[in-house]
Amino acid sequence: MRNLFPDLYSDLVPGMSAAGFSLGESFPNVSEKVGVVEWYGPEVPVRDILLQNNSWVGIKRKIGFGNELLISYRFMNEAVSLYFENSGRLYRIAVGEGYRGQFSGVSVGDNLRSLEREFDVLFNDADDDFLLRRSGNILTGVSFVTDYRASLEDAPEQIIKFISMHDWSLR
Prior knowledge:
Helix content is 8%, strand content 33%. It has 2 helices and 12 strands. Strands 3-4-5-6-7-12-11 form a 7-stranded mixed sheet, with helices on one face. Strands 8-9-10 form a 3-stranded antiparallel sheet, with no helix packed on it. A two-stranded antiparallel sheet has the order 1-2.
């Protein structure tokens, strides 16, 4: 079976979809799309593997101090990452360098401040990422990680490294 090449130009839809995948898809369904991959367990350092990866790999990581696992598929050097926890449902799609799709005209590699045309950009110091607010409401299902992971007051010029489409209720 051939491995699916993700749609690297697909628009990013908060709380819904990215890269040709939809949040809420089952692990077996996504596994069938992705195809056969090599899996790396919690004890394997994967940084070098991801840097040299030219397709999909599977990653298993422990959550906290128990036996629960975070299972993910990673494409290339994290151009697309698909995350699953206990529910067996895709709850997070993160896109990184190499992904060309956009959210509100903004993509990975752009200046974070370009989002200020439409949104208030808020630093979430609990997770070191950025959230968006419009008309007093936080936009759910999307967050941004930058090269600094610091507030815009501390580092005013930041480049978007990852964009996350997620639905935490699916964990």
